[in-house]
Design goal:
499 residues, nine-stranded mixed sheet, BirA Bifunctional Protein, domain 2, alpha+beta, seven-stranded mixed sheet, OB fold (Dihydrolipoamide Acetyltransferase, E2P)
Length: 499
């Protein structure tokens, strides 16, 4: 049986050679486009408003990928798709003359430039009447057969260019992602924050409880790690006198992959001197609601089967009280054994050999988080879960920390930052002791350089980390983090099948 893919490839290669034989460069270095498809439509609508029926515009030049071909003898319609939309082009042999023969070399997926005036067909579609054609790039492989979207998620994620080519809706998600990030920058800048950049490769992977990726710097002859958070370097800047700083960038954690985890992800971390976690809560709810209003035009979004209202104020719920409602009293269950037993009774799978931090995290993740569908702040965490946060006045068992949840998913994490260098050293030493005791678990790491900075004095500070990918998931209604990351990490497949 003939290999259809091979036949299509051979046909396209034959057309490529015929073009070259005619002296036509199928891959020219430059082309001057005057209008995108969206700009072309706006131009015609403006002209029609003054000229009425039968309007024709001045000559323009458009370009894009051939998305459809409809031949009718000596006339042909084709669709050009560019980054802003689609434009129909009308080709007539009596206008194009010998260039009409270029159609014989065209295939779906080719890039084409077309010049001519705009008019409206009898069916009411804005159309460019081509007086000139230029082939801009001959596609050797055919486009996806389904122009209305790929169904194979493996292909969608591994070959994102095909997904973008086939699905305008996917392009719209990533345009909105760009607009959300752009708005967050404007929001932070407008509040007097300064955007900064901190190292991606660090000698100590601190600021979070996560396994890092490790690399080797040959010239320095030292081991470095990809950062798991930007926190400790940003707080160094607060020590140095930069009162309001933020960074939007990638962090890297050597962890599993699921619907809301990718090993590299984007965060916005901010630190504000003379603020606490209450100030940060007010900032977060305002930022998220105003981002939705700016980008989507509304503060209610659809996520899974829920209609989620983002307008402030968001409820503030005590972590201890929510666990108590779920059947776990962490103040009475004051040992690992008691806490593990309580978890087992409620069907939460933990080991009695796990650290209290790990058991608490699983209890919150299983019993509390899934219920936090509407925007909610879960506040005041046990100190063992938050070694970088300041203790609550009068009760050192808990710290001033919140996590922000939307759709049952954490989208933000914030502290009133611990600024006592003696207590911070004690906390780091406790983390290192726990690492020795529970070697397969993740704990924060001792960072002597950060402690040295803290000894010079850091003012009261409110810190924040927002997961950009998860926030985009919520605002665009996507179920998987892979749907909002252009190139998600994927498992290796057989050689020759992609990466």
């Amino acid at each position: 049986m003939p290999d259809r893919a091979s036949d299509l490839l051979r046909s396209r290669l034959d057309k490529l050679e015929r073009l070259r034989a005619q002296g036509i460069d199928p891959y020219p270095a430059h082309f001057h486009r005057t209008h995108t498809s969206q700009e072309a439509a706006a131009l015609f609508q403006q002209a029609e408003a003054t000229g009425g029926t039968g309007t024709r515009t001045q000559t323009i030049t458009a370009a894009g990928r051939v998305a459809a071909l409809r031949g009718m003898g000596k006339a042909t319609f084709l669709d050009l798709r560019d980054g802003s939309g689609r434009l129909q082009v009308h080709l007539r042999s009596d206008i194009l003359g010998p260039k009409y023969a270029l159609l014989e070399a065209l295939d779906l997926g080719d890039f084409l430039g077309a010049t001519g005036p705009l008019f409206k067909t009898r069916r009411g579609e804005i159309t460019l009447e081509a007086s000139d054609l230029v082939i801009l790039s001959k596609a050797i492989s055919p486009p996806p057969e389904k122009w209305h979207g790929l169904k194979d998620v493996e292909v969608r994620y591994r070959q994102r260019y095909l997904d973008l080519m086939a699905s305008p809706e996917v392009q719209a998600i990533f345009r909105n992602r760009s607009r959300i990030v752009s708005y967050i920058r404007r929001f932070m800048d407008g509040r007097g924050f300064m955007e900064v950049e901190t190292p991606t490769m660090v000698p100590v992977a601190g600021g979070a409880m996560a396994k890092p990726f490790m690399t080797r710097h040959n010239a320095l002859d030292r081991t470095l790690y990809l950062r798991i958070a930007t926190e400790l370097h940003l707080k160094r800047l607060i020590v140095g006198g930069m009162d309001k700083v933020y960074e939007i960038g990638k962090v890297f954690r050597n962890e599993g992959i699921d619907m809301d985890h990718n090993p590299e992800f984007t965060t916005m971390e901010s630190y504000e001197a003379y603020a606490d976690y209450n100030d940060v809560m007010a900032m977060v709810e305002e930022m998220v609601a105003s981002a939705a209003r700016e980008v989507l035009g509304a503060t209610t979004v659809a996520f899974h089967e829920h209609a989620i209202g983002l307008d402030p104020p968001w409820p503030r719920l005590s972590l201890v009280e929510e666990l108590r409602k779920a059947g776990v009293d962490i103040e009475r269950q004051d040992t690992n054994e008691k806490l593990a037993a309580a978890a087992a009774e409620l069907g939460v799978q933990v080991q009695r050999t796990e650290s209290r931090t790990s058991i608490l995290d699983k209890l919150v993740g299983s019993l509390v988080e899934p219920k936090l569908i509407q925007p909610t702040f879960l506040v005041d965490y046990p100190v063992e879960m938050s070694p970088l946060a300041k203790a609550k006045p009068g009760d050192p068992r808990y710290v001033e920390r919140f996590e922000a949840f939307i759709g049952g998913m954490e989208v933000g994490n914030a502290f009133t930052e611990l600024n006592d260098p003696v207590v911070q050293r004690q906390r780091f030493e406790e983390q290192e002791a726990l690492r020795r005791q529970f070697g397969d678990e993740d704990f924060d790491r001792m960072d002597e350089d950060f402690l040295a900075a803290l000894e010079y004095g850091m003012p009261p500070t409110g810190g924040l980390g927002v997961g950009i990918d998860r926030l985009v998931m919520v605002l665009t209604g996507q179920r998987s983090i892979r749907d909002v990351v252009l190139f998600p990490q994927m498992r290796t497949i057989n050689p020759g099948q992609g990466s």
